[in-house]
Amino acid sequence: MNTRMRRAAVAVAATAMAVSLAACGSAKESGDKADSSDSAAKKGDAIKVGLLLPENQTARYEKFDKPLIEKKVKELTNNKGEVIYANAKQDATLQSQQVDTMVTNKVDVLIVDAVNSKSIAGSIKKAKDQGIKVVAYDRLAEGPIDAYTSFDNVTVGKTQGEALLKALGDKAKDGQIVMMNGSSTDPNAGQFKEGAHDVLDGKVKVGREYDTKEWKPENANANMEGAISALGKDKIVGVYSANDGMAGGIITALKAAGISNIPVTGQDAELAGVQRILTGEQYMSVYKSYPQEATVAAEMAVALAQGKSLDSIATSKSDSATTKGVPTVLVPVISLTKDNINETVVKEGFYTVDEICAGKYKAACDKAGVK
């Protein structure tokens, strides 16, 4: 992790803590249960945190989430806490096996970003039956979850939809858009879609819409080829893409069909996405502060493992299909365009200017004033 990112993580952590300390006691019931756990209270700083992330194709998990959570757990436990890590590589069955391994290793708490929010429920129950607390990370998994942190996913979709309408202008009245949603097994994808439809419905015609299997760029590429064939390349005025990875596959299909200069949305502020925004191939992404989300997850996990209340951390509650009133922290998001790259990904240390502006992107950076 570069120096700028470390500084950003510390700064955001301080902000998150300041906000959380001002929160009302929204998680008292959960906190009281944790306080009654003598074994957890005796753990002190020598805790084991199991970290289960869903895949390694999206850049964020290995570059941001994992190192940031590890760093914060160390800070909160005087370097005595241990993080045991596993990545499911988009395989829900493998992730269930990884939970079993964590239970065998007797971790004190799990941070789980589920590949499949429904199928993971049984594994989470197994962990809970062994006295292991569970923090749902980024996606609200089903089962007996103790805490949850993510971004406001409906707002993400609204942010994308609003940006697309702004980019379309008068073209929204006459043309059609393609909607490329995420995987149907990801509850976040449904919330992104909900938010986007809230903004887009009635304002622009959706010519084709897809739920993209496993969020894979190649599947988005194939879907986009199908949409172009069905609608005709002159009828498509824009594309709603739920994330940057899929946007890459979509833009490849658009180029192959000779379609250019139409807005494509995204999410995650991946390096390739930021570079496409600079060159005009992609209109926007959604910038999400992974340092803040990771900080909150680590705070929740350490508190639960040590038998402490979540009152000073959780600011709201969420309901899954199986569990009501889960103590929750939702982190705000920002629409990332060519105009605010300096104030977002550069300022918070996501990437250095040298990374963004390497090679063929230097001229675009200079034109946009990225420095």
What would your notes on this structure say?
The chain is α/β, with parallel strands linked by helices and 371 residues long. It contains 15 helices and 12 strands. The chain has helices at residues 3-21, 28-35, 38-41, 60-76, 92-104, 121-129, 153-168, 187-200, 217-231, 244-256, 271-279, 290-305, 342-346, 353-356, 362-368; strands spanning 48-53, 82-87, 109-112, 133-137, 147-151, 176-181, 205-211, 236-241, 285-288, 316-318, 326-331, 333-336. Strands 2-1-3-4-5-11-10 form a 7-stranded mixed beta sheet, with helices on both faces. The chain is globular, with a radius of gyration of 21 Å. Mean pLDDT is 90; it is low at 1-38.
Index terms:
371 residues; 3-stranded parallel beta sheet; globular; 7-stranded mixed beta sheet; single chain; disordered N terminus
The radius of gyration over CA amounts to: 21 Å
Distance between the termini: 20 Å
* Large-scale geometry: globular
Number of strands: 12
Q: Which structural class is indicated by helix and strand composition?
A: alpha/beta
What proportion of the residues is helical, as a percent range?
A: 40-55%
What topology, given as strand order, has the largest sheet?
2-1-3-4-5-11-10
* pLDDT averaged residue by residue: 90
Helix-strand string: HHHEHEHEHEEHEHEHEHHEHEEEHHH
Estimated share of beta-strand residues: 15-25%
Question: What composes the largest sheet?
Answer: 7 strands, mixed
* Distinct helical segment count: 15
Poorly predicted runs: 1-38
